[in-house]
Design goal:
Elements: H1 2-16, H2 20-27, H3 40-109, H4 114-124, H5 129-136, H6 141-149, H7 156-170, H8 174-209, H9 212-222, H10 227-233, H11 235-262
InterPro entries: T2SS_GspF_dom (IPR018076)
Domain Type II secretion system protein GspF: 103-220
Membrane topology: Multi-pass membrane protein
């Protein structure tokens, strides 16, 4: 166990250098919004490794296992909640783009100038605010839309930028392109909602499976045993505890990743 803890510490140090750019992102987070979210799994893995090593230094092998188990369970809960929050934010952003594109097409069809139409849309769909302000001062609208569209959830703005560019170059009617784009974005929104509803049961099943070991402990007490005492007081029990928690954590992460991949529309 001591050798394993040493290897974990070496791995943490080796992984820390590639993570250095992320520290600058976190420092600038209050001033500017990062265009890509920080990947949580490596960061949480580093935290689990450090907590495990700290437990080994303070209480030996038993402390390493218990602290590592607690850290792994906490990290999995944090990752699952954060992933759900990010997915919710992406869906809200995509809905906002679809609604704003539909409103923009209606305003242009009604005869509003492009700058005025963008300003009106930005009042109900804030994702258009940056592009509208950029266009109002004479900037390139397609470039501004493309920049916002690179953020997670706002990919539909890249299609709007391409639509705007084609209409400018060919002189074709903007409303026709925007109507087609808005229809496609609305269809994608409905499909995304349907897929999310279908995957909700699979996600919940995967999360519930992570709690099955607790059910096993309860059954052990019901038949007159003391499984917790065995798990924390013997070498074999510590190994069983570490392996069981590792498998449960891997199962939860795997099921979440499969659901995320199945829910991707692109």
């Amino acid at each position: 166990m001591a050798a394993l803890s040493g290897l974990l510490l070496v791995a943490a140090v080796a992984l820390w250098r590639p993570l250095r750019p992320w520290r600058r992102v976190l420092v600038r987070a209050r001033a500017t919004r990062p265009e890509r979210p920080v990947r949580l799994i490596p960061v949480l893995l580093i935290g689990v490794l450090f907590i495990t090593v700290a437990g080994w230094l303070l209480a030996g092998d038993r402390g390493a296992v218990l602290s590592g188990v607690a850290a792994a369970c906490s990290a999995t809960a944090v990752w699952t909640i954060t992933q759900a929050h990010r997915a919710h934010q992406r869906n809200r952003a995509a809905d906002e783009v679809a609604r704003g594109s539909s409103e923009l097409a209606a305003l242009l069809r009604a005869g509003h100038p492009p700058a005025r139409a963008l300003g009106l849309v930005a009042e109900s769909a804030p994702c258009f605010a940056e592009s509208a302000a950029h266009f109002r001062i004479g900037g390139d609208l397609t470039e501004a839309l493309q920049r916002v569209g690179d953020r997670p959830g706002y990919e539909g703005l890249c299609g709007l930028a391409a639509t705007w560019r084609i209409a400018q170059r060919t002189g074709a009617s903007m409303t026709t392109f925007l109507d087609d784009l808005a229809t496609r974005l609305i269809d994608e929104r409905e499909l995304r909602r349907s897929v999310g509803t279908e995957l909700a049961a699979a996600r919940m099943t995967g999360r519930l499976l992570g709690f099955l070991p607790l059910v096993g402990l309860g059954m052990g007490y019901l038949i007159g045993g003391d499984p917790v005492a065995f798990l924390i007081s013997s070498v074999g029990g510590l190994w069983c505890l570490a392996l069981g928690v590792a498998l449960a954590v891997a199962g939860v992460v795997w099921s979440e990743k499969l659901a995320d991949r199945a829910g991707q529309l692109r």
